[in-house]
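Deviations from the work plan: none for this task. Representative record:
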Amino acid sequence: GDSVTQMEGPVTLSEEAFLTINCTYTATGYPSLFWYVQYPGEGLQLLLKATKADDKGSNKGFEATYRKETTSFHLEKGSVQVSDSAVYFCALLYNFNKFYFGSGTKLNVKP
Amino acid sequence: GAGVSQTPSNKVTEKGKYVELRCDPISGHTALYWYRQSLGQGPEFLIYFQGTGAADDSGLPNDRFFAVRPEGSVSTLKIQRTERGDSAVYLCASSQSGMGTSGTYEQFFGPGTRLTVL
């Protein structure tokens, strides 16, 4: 069945470091792919999305490219800030209204 | 404007009891979703409403779980004969309409209800 696998955390980085959080998926057909973020004490928020192969989603300095050949949607940011500390979830949208979420990756950014 | 709200924020109950969890979606949103998030895991889809009807309830784990949305706004997730394994955070989300193939309409999540079954 459809599923999402993301790298385990926590990931600890210093401010201004480069960030990569890996996400791979298994799906029939061509799902849309998403990254959600959960800041401490807050609900899940959409960070970015891509709806077809080779699309790049971007927001707040974060980027992810939909790679069909490697079934991946890795999240990247060139220079992280302390305020980026949060839990990041990769997700795929299947069958119009059903999301499959990864298990989440906690990011800690130290000043 | 108000976001998605859920009540209670925390619920502690004993094994075998009945619980109800409430979700108030954003006004005007026709689509409503329930998810369950166990510790250290991502949200797991339970059920999706379009208006008053459950369009997809394939994620409900068994017949102890039931959800309603009688007027197409507020929804209640009901769990009968609770078990310790039901302990989790239950999330509600709403969107302006159904997601479609590309997630045209963003899902907005509530803060969740933390259910603990002793």
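The CA atoms of residues 55 and 66 of chain A lie 6 Å apart.
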